[in-house]
Amino acid sequence: MGAPYTGIFPIVPTPFTETGELDLDGQRRVIDCMIDQGVDGVCILANYSEQFLLSDAEREILQTLCMEHIDGRIPVIATCSHFSTRISVERCRRAEVQGAAMVMMMPPYHGALLKASDEGVYEHFAALAGAIDIPIMIQDAPLSGVTLSIPLLARIARELDQVRYFKIETPGTAAKLRTLIAAAGAHIEGPFDGEEGITLLADLDAGATGTMTSALACEKIRPIVIDHLAGDRPAAEAGYNRLLPLINLENRQCGLRACKTVMMQGGVIKSDAVRHPIPSLDVPTRETLLRMARALDLIALKWGK
After folding, report:
1. 157 CB contacts (<8 Å, ≥6 apart)?
2. Cα 124–195–64 angle (5° rounding)?
3. C-alpha to C-alpha distance for 109 and 197, rounded to whole angstroms
4. How would you write the pLDDT of the chain (305 residues) with one tens digit per residue?
5. Residues with a known catalytic role
6. Is 279 left (phi over 0), alpha (psi -120 to 50) or beta?
7. What predicted TM-score, i.e. pTM, was given to this entire model?
8. Does the residue 294 lie in any domain?
9. Are strands 114-115 and 109-110 parallel, antiparallel or unpaired?
10. Residue 12 within a domain
C-alpha cells in the first residue's frame, strides 16, 4: 500500500460543442491544462463533469479517453455512482481495469424518494469492496438526499478495508470531518472536502488532507492545502483569503459553468456550452468571473493563448 492520496484532485469538466456533442479534442486539452496546473490527481465523470447528462455510451467514451490520455501521468479517481449495486459494481470493475487509482461513489439514491436504508448503504459498499482491489471514496453530498450518519460511515470505514477515503461536502463539513476522524481514527486514510473549497480552511483545520474542487483555480488552491499540511497555517490562511471571493462566486453564482467559461476564454476549449436544462451563465456574472480570474492570473485563463 502506497502513501495516502493528498492535495488537490479536481473534477474534470466535460466540454461540449455548441450543438451539444462531446468535444473529444477539447477533453484532451482540458486534461493537459489541469496537469499543467500542478494537480495531484483528477476525478472524472463526477457531478461537475455533468455526469447526470451523459449517456452510458458517452461515459464509456470519456472514461476510455481520459485514462488513455492521462496514461499514468497522475492518479485518476473515477466516479461510478449508480442506484443499482450491480451496475455500480460493473462500473467499478471497468474503472479498475482501465487503470483508475480509486473510485468515488455516492450512496444509492434515485430522485428524492428512492434511497437505501443504512443497511442497504452498507451492503452496497460491501459489494463494491468485494469486487475491486483499489480504494473507494464515499461522496457525502446533499445532492443524494441521503443522510450518512457518523456511526454508519465509521462502521463502513472500520469493517470495509477498501473504503478509506471520504469526501464530505454537507452543511457543517468541518464538524462532520472532525467527528468522523475521531470515530474511525486510522481507518480514515483520506478525509477530503469539496464544494469548490468554500469551507476549505475550516475543513483543513478539522483534519482534511485533500480537496476536490473544480478545475478553475487548481494552482491557487493546492498551495493552501500543502501549506496547511506542512504546518504553515498563516500561509494557508493568507492564500485562502486571497482566493475566497472567486470561490464564493463560483460556488454561489456559477456552479460548474465557471470553469468552462474561463477555459473557453483561455483557449483551452472552443465552447463553454452546458447541456439543457442547465442554463448558460448570464452576462453580468460571466463578466465578474472573468474580471476576478484576470486579477488572479489563472493558468486556465491563458493556457491556450
Report:
1. 163, 164, 166, 180, 184, 187, 188
2. 60
3. 25
4. 579 999 999 999 999 999 999 999 999 999 999 999 999 999 999 999 999 999 999 999 999 999 999 999 999 999 999 999 999 999 999 999 999 999 999 999 999 899 999 999 999 999 999 999 999 999 999 999 999 999 999 999 999 999 999 999 999 999 999 999 999 999 999 999 999 999 999 999 999 999 999 999 999 999 999 999 999 999 999 999 999 999 999 999 999 999 999 999 999 999 999 999 999 999 999 999 999 999 999 999 999 98
5. 167
6. beta
7. 0.97
8. no
9. antiparallel
10. yes
Q: Which three cell numbers stand for residue 221?
A: 488552491
Q: Is residue 95 part of a domain?
A: yes
The CATH number assigned to the domain holding 183 equals 3.20.20.70
For 29, 143, 144, 174, 202, the CA distances from 253, given in Å and listed in that order, are: 26, 17, 21, 23, 21
Domains of the chain: total: 1
- Residue 108 in domain: yes
Query: Rounded to an integer, what distance in angstroms lies between the CA atom of residue 22 and that of residue 15?
Result: 6
Measured between alpha carbons, how far is 223 from 221 in angstroms, rounded to an integer?
6
List all residues 6 or more positions away from 37 whose beta carbon is below 8 Å from its beta carbon.
215, 218, 219, 222, 299, 300
- Write out the residue range of the structural domain in which residue 132 sits: 7-241
Concatenated DSSP letters of the chain: --PPP-EE-PBPP--B-TTS-B-HHHHHHHHHHHHHTT-S-EEESSGGGTGGG--HHHHHHHHHHHHHHHTTSS-EEEE---S-HHHHHHHHHHHHHTT-SEEEEPPSEETTTEE--HHHHHHHHHHHHHH-SS-EEEEE-GGG-----HHHHHHHHHH-TTEEEEEE-STTHHHHHHHHHHHHGGG--EEEE-GGGTTHHHHHHTT--EE---SSSHHHHHHHHHHHHTT-HHHHHHHHHHHHHHHHHIIIIITTHHHHHHHHHTTS-S-----TTSPPPPHHHHHHHHHHHHHHT-GGGTTT-
